[in-house]
């Protein structure tokens, strides 16, 4: 589960940094590209940590918290700003992925 979420965050985060034009074609035009790239690099960092944890099978409580909190934060931002009509509906697809990660981790904790 950590490997899957880590890979997803690594790829989706790097995309906005590596090829902002195609990222904006799918997600819509952005005014603050530095902010998009900052979030992207943070996702790369979180994803990398999750990949290391998954590869070494080290799931300390802090790692689980970061995995779940990251998914919850992205889900909340996407839902709030979609409902405010600030971001496009494509972000609802990612919101569903984040719900999946939260359910997956919650199952792991049980």
Description:
The chain has 110 residues and is mainly alpha-helical. It has one domain (2-109). The chain is 84% helix and 0% strand. It is built from five helices and no strands. The chain is globular, with a radius of gyration of 14 Å. The chain starts with a helix and ends with a helix.
Set out the fold topology.
Elements: H1 2-18, H2 20-27, H3 33-56, H4 61-83, H5 90-109
Helix pairs in contact: 1-2, 1-3, 3-4, 4-5
* Spatial separation of the terminal alpha carbons: 15 Å
| Portion in beta strands | under 5%
Rounded radius of gyration (Å): 14 Å
Q: What overall form do the CA principal axes indicate?
A: globular
Secondary-structure-derived class: mainly alpha
Indicate how many domains the architecture comprises.
1
**Number of extended strands:** 0
Secondary-structure element pattern, one letter each: HHHHH
Q: Write down the overall mean pLDDT.
A: 96
Helical residues, percent: over 70%
Low-confidence stretches: none
Question: Count of helical segments?
Answer: 5
**Tell me about the biggest sheet?**
none
Short description:
By secondary structure, the protein is mainly alpha-helical. It has helices spanning 2-18, 20-27, 33-56, 61-83, 90-109. The longest helix has 24 residues, at 33-56.
List keywords for this structure.
globular, mainly alpha, 110 residues
